[in-house]
Amino acid sequence: MDNQDTRYKRNLEYSNSHKPQNQEPEVIDFFKLKTILKKNLPWAILLILIALFVAFLYVRYTNVKFQSYAELKLNKRSEASVFGFNPLSEESSNLNTLSGEVELIRSKLFLKQVIAKLPLDVSYHVIGRFKNEERYKSTPFTVSYEKSCADYGQKIYVDIIDKQNFKLSTNPDSEEWISQKFGKYFIFNGCSYKLETTPSFFNSEPLFFTISTPESLMNYVESNLSVAPENLNANTIKITFEDYNPYKVQAIVEQVSELYTEYSKEQKNRANQLKIEFLNKQLKQTENELSSYETYIEDFTIENKTVSPSQDVNRLISEMVKMDSILYGINYQLGEIKNIQNQLEKDTLSFDQINYLVLPSNMQPLFEEFSELKQEYQMAKTRYKKESQVLQQRDIEINALKDRINNYLSNKVEILAERKVNILNRKREIENKFNQLPAKTNELNQKMRFYSLYEELYLSLMQKKTEFEIAQAGTLSEVDILTPANLPRSPIGPSTNLIYIGSFAVGFILSFIFIGFRYLLYDEINSIHELERLTSIPIVAKISRLSRNVAKKSGVIVSEKPRSQISEAFRTLRTSLDFIGIKDGKKVISISSTTSGEGKTFISVNLAAILAMSNKKVIILDLDMRKPRAQYAFNLEENEMGISSVLSGGIHWKECVNITKTDNLHFIPSGILPPNPAELLEGEYFDQLLKELKSEYDIILLDTPPIGLVSDGIIALKKSDHSLFVLRADYSKRSFIDDLHRSLNLNNIQNISLIFNAVRKENKGYGYYQDYYNDNNSKSISTLKRLFNI
Asked: What is d(CA 218, CA 222) in angstroms, rounded to the nearest whole number?
């Protein structure tokens, strides 16, 4: 009670200005938040349950994914350090090498070979109750089809009757099924098909198959295949594949690994194969030359009947053959070297066609290194910009190695040229001596020289060919499979626990957002502190909320339950009214509200009763002549004689007075509903009525209509000594306060106080009020609305 008096005195200081002078900044109102949480908790829980239900449906109808992987180790290494170059760190060099191999594996050309080696074009699916399951190995049949006209992407449903017969259709709900036999070609939708049974045959489950196009298969493999460097220092690559069938993912990863290993081995043998082909070509030419010389020698022997020229001729021939052989070799070497120099200068050198036989043995590693640098440069051009430092560095390395090769070749040419001059001088001397020999012997010796030359060349070529064939037979792959493709036993997703946790989090966030919106959109006044922030009109009482059952059974609570908390609240209200000056002659008190349902009539009858209990003679006038309700509080059945009859001059007010069960409390009902209640209140009969009542009663309470609905209430407020305005917690809008301020300022009404009704108790209590106009056509709060607070 002391707190209520203190609040009233504080608010009374601001009675001249209805709006608060110092508006508190907007902060979180925890009481309001608590109210909103109580009202919307079922909706928040429902949002979380919906999110969990969606997660359940997703888990129930989504196939699990499996992953298979393999690890490969590359044994390739850079040999640039042989010539003193170390342009990149080992890790960077390995990264470049592995990146190139990764792109090779992911290339469409490589994946096309993988697809061609696996039966991926036809997928088989078993139809389940909730979701379909793809079969890869354990299929009851295999499908052969004509590729030019197949129904790509079309689901073809198969109903297996037995091991010989089946039916198929493109629509499982259709009655048009075509019967066919296993192992025989048939025409379906204009295309030829054949279904053959497998050892895994079964007919207990319905299924369908689809035929994929090469493009869709390529997209499927590319989207599910992952290739990435695993360890740069160890030169390892990890290949992974994800799909819904564990046997399928294992087969694809296994095929990729094996095909890449074979490809690496073929690439390594390619250089030796090209050399062998070149040697075979040279051997064939040499054989032809040797055959022609052998034919000439045979004919010469038969014609001349001798095979033993003179010793001088033999000696000279031997020496000339030796000189010619050397000259031929020198010329051959010079020609090959100059050809290499020209191609190297024009950058048209084909490394696979270089004849290393005419070059020093230390030149072959240089050309192999130069070939590797050129390949690395071409690959780098696709990754880096032209002005990139990597390209510039590669270009410097290539030019340096090119200069080094040119120096070696130039030195070799000078040596060969000098030797050629010496050999030519020696040959001239021998030829001068040989010219003295018979012409036929000279001719024979000449042929023998060339024969010996080609014979030596042939033997040398055969030896080189044998060496390359041996090297090719012993070639090992540069790729080792460290971890073969595994058969996954457990799925990688979706993770049930993670999905449920995520859905719960989503539901909780949605609930939080929903509560936040409800908080922002909540316009009802829910606490007395909020009401004090909205207005400076004195708040003279705070009435607690009753339960619905108690409110319905009770008329005048303070009389029926005088020791209740509600009764104490009305006693506090009575004490607060003493500060207004009721004892000083302010007898006419009007009670109003903005709209129906705020408890105006409930406050009127109970306030009148509590005032009557303090030995004051009190009368209540029900001025709501549109839809009156006060008579129900006093259990009056008839309402024919009342205020409307008095104000129309039909009868005297004393004829309408009803004696209530509470001592000193009388009541005049509204009477018959008139067509012009506002005009009746503005007439002279109402002023006369108030004058006469003041002489008979200590306090006159006017139960007025809501001022926000009709103008009757404003008329009553003007004629009263003091006005009490009722606001209901969690019902009255904030805009009601603004409307009240405008009405008071417009009509110059000063003496007014507020009653905050139906204040929610802590942790208990429900509202009991119904709509103001509660008759047969009124809307009642349904059980569902009460449950969800809407």
From this structure: 6
Q: Tell me the per-residue pLDDT of 551-576, one tens digit each, with 9 for 90 and over.
A: 555 578 888 888 888 888 888 888 88
Give the pTM: 0.49
Which region holds residue 61: left if phi is over 0, alpha if psi is between -120 and 50, else beta? alpha
- Cβ-in-10-Å burial (0-12, 13-18, 19+) of 446 comes to middle
The pLDDT, as a whole number, for residue 551 is: 56
What 3-state DSSP class applies to 725?
Answer: strand
Position 657, amino acid: V
Kindly list the distances between the CA atom of residue 588 and the CA atoms of 241, 717, 726, in Å, as whole numbers in the listed order. Answer: 89, 10, 17
Tokens representing residue 592 in the block: 């109003």
Which two tokens mark 67? 């992953």
CA distance 369 to 80: 7
Both structure tokens of 783: 């059980």
Give the tokens for residue 8.
């009233």
* Helices within 134-245 (DSSP H only): 214-224
CB atoms within 10 A of CB 84: 7
Residue 719: phi, psi to the nearest 5? -90, 0
Q: Tell me how far apart the alpha carbons of residues 710 and 728 are, in angstroms, rounded to a whole number.
A: 19
Give the span between the Cα atoms of 547 and 764, in whole angstroms. Answer: 9
In the three-class reduction of DSSP (H, G, I as helix; E, B as strand; rest coil), residue 746 is classed as helix
Give the model confidence (pLDDT) of 609-645 as tens digits. 998 998 889 999 988 888 888 888 888 877 778 888 8
What is the SS3 assignment for 504?
A: helix
